[in-house]
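Request: How about a record?
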Amino acid sequence: MTPSTILLLIIAYFGTLFYISHRVSRKDSGNDAFFTANKNSKWYLVAFGMIGTALSGVTFISVPGEVGAPSGEQFKYFQFVLGNALGFIVITKLLLPLYYRMNLTSIYGYIEQRMGHYSYKTAASIFLISRTISSAFRLYLVVIVLQRFVFDYYHIPFAFTVLISLLLIFSYTYRGGLKTIIITDTLQTFFLVTSVFLTIYFICDRMDLTAIGAFEEVKNSNYSKIFFFDDFFGSKFHFVKQILGGMFVTIAMTGLDQDLMQKNLSCKNIGEAQKNMFTFTGIFVIINIFFLSVGALLYIYANKNGIAIPTDLVTGKPRTDLLFPEIALNHLALIPAIVFLLGIIAATFATTDSALTALTTSFCVDFLGMDKSENSRKNTVRTRHLVHISFSVLIFFVIIVFNTINDSSVVGMIFKVASYTYGPLLGLYAFGLFQKSRNVNDKLVPLMCLAAPFLTYLINENSKLLFSGYVFDNELIVLNGLITYVGLFLTSSKTHEKISF
């Protein structure tokens, strides 16, 4: 597939998104449409569109790549996905009813009413920092693919590729916001899901495998182990760690994150929002099975055809996350290449456009108070546009920093540090929900939320020594939240009347 063909496909793709954006936002581009989609979203559109938001470009290329990683991960990720499903159920039954009962635009409004001003600003700041870094990281990984396979051919600088990508996202989201994204993400999720199934079909066709034959091939390969029960203390792959990590990461990074919750809060009522979440959970689990299957088939195909794992152009080290684009764009026919490209673009931009809208919403509501009647002036729309472009610029500079570092281990650590910050959110909400007879010391909450990730990092670095060889993985967020919870409890005081929310 030539770079020119890819470029034309990208232009056609975004032309479609611009058309949808224009149609959706031409009659209503006010703050209610941007923040909540006028609370009139169809639950089935939200459920389907959330798949594209939850499954980023990182999932699209990294999950299949990790199946054959030297560390022996195989289908280990599916344990984490099962934990995710448990987390989604907790969100549906515990958090969504709370948010609807309080009629929130930003979910951090709960922290303001339950704990106070400083706690509220801390929770919102945690989201803004974490989502900015994680969104930049997700977009960065995919821009690397586009740069390597398309824009290097035209000698276009990396920074310009990033700038154009963010400009395109800004252009179709800044007016309609969530109202536009509910529709565009539905389309993008369709491309994402279709690309997964078609990729499996094309690879099977090249290897002369039927659906049953492909299942047997994957089952009998060295890539299909799902459950890991050996070495609880020393292995990061252990079933219990993955289930706990998947569950609490989901509760924190979905249920306590403005991005995905903003879509849920755009439904007409709690009943429709819960139908959306249960449907989304089922689709999420199934689609991840197919992502892992794609990974196994890619490695089987690569081994049979002598295709090596691509190496990083700077470090010279193998990059498993480049195997999928390498095979799709350079070793299959034109149609499979187009299918892959549509899938990776859809996965990435469905995540980034949603995050950019959520960042804008959180800042406008949590720091500028645009949801309050006294601030509902006409110029708030103009202010919202400025905030929207400011976050676009911020994400641009964060990506440039990632590229300057140009070390996957360092970048991975930055992403891990970003996920650490969700631990304090977990602790804040847990305290608010389960300690209704106690009030926090509001002014000390920012200190607690700074101390918890720091202590978590120290414990993680010395876990083998402290806990008889125990190695943390994703369940580290539980420790992070627990430290925050304990700190809040120790600095809190009893209240004379039980808090009702």
Remarks:
- Residues 270-305 form the longest helix (36 residues).
